[in-house]
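Hey, resending since the last one bounced:
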Amino acid sequence: MTDYRNVVAQADARIEHARTEQSLAADDRARAIAAEVARRGRGGGAAVAGELGLTEKSVSQAVARARSAGDPHRPLPRDTLDRLFAAEVRDLPPLRLIHWFTIQYIVRGTVVDITWIEQPGTLLACKVEEMDPIHVPDHAQLVTACRSWTRAQALAVVDVCLTGNVDALPVKE
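The structure tokens again:
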């Protein structure tokens, strides 16, 4: 049941991203038209309208839009981090399901704060080492796996564990 919800959520995110990109492209177009009208000075609007096959009213609206448009030097799209984490999760080497649940147990019982940004894999490995090896099959293998992850991979794992979507992690049969 959650599979279709994930697909719908991803599609909604793509639609929102497309709407944002369309609006930003329209702002860029308006800024380009406004800059050319300003460069040409008096009568520039009519000349630009003729060259682009637009009405003078459309050029005037573009100039008005350019005045109210936001800064063209904008940050990355809002879903960039989610897309990055999804890509990192896809590239993770598979682990046994019990290992993913162990990491989820650790993450949910730990305050993950700003200190985790620098070395999240090492911190996860330390938390695994603190656990009794009797409760974690192949304890050393899990520690090694945690230490081998890049910063982005480890943070992606932490994110997946915090959101409860352990099914998204690659499982070794």
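The chain has two domains: 2-68, 80-168.

Sorry for the duplicate.
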